[in-house]
Specification:
Layout: H1 2-19, H2 28-36, H3 41-55, H4 61-93
Length: 94
């Protein structure tokens, strides 16, 4: 699991550079759409179930991979939404 965490960290760093949070290149409607994105209730329930199993050290290999996937997607969503919030803030300041 340690190598997955390191890989996720590298992926997050690469994505952060790719998204260029210091640039204001999102149109307001795009920023608004990105901020509206969220996981479906069924995905939230699944993440909670997997988290409980992980806390009990009861994850299968497939479940460990699945929870890592959720973690990566959640991190990507957080990066995109951070950029969208910055774009909205800059747009209001202009």
């Amino acid at each position: 699991m340690g190598s997955q965490a390191t890989g996720a960290s590298h992926e997050a760093d690469i994505l952060a550079r790719l998204l260029q949070p210091d640039t204001n290149d999102l149109r307001p409607e795009v920023a608004e759409y990105i901020l509206s994105l969220s996981f479906r209730p069924s995905d939230v329930e699944r993440m909670c179930s997997l988290t409980e199993k992980a806390a009990a050290a009861a994850l299968t290999a497939d479940e460990a991979s699945e929870i890592a996937g959720y973690r990566h997607v959640a991190h990507l969503l957080a990066l995109l939404q951070s950029k969208a919030r910055l774009a909205q803030k800059r747009s209001r300041a202009q």
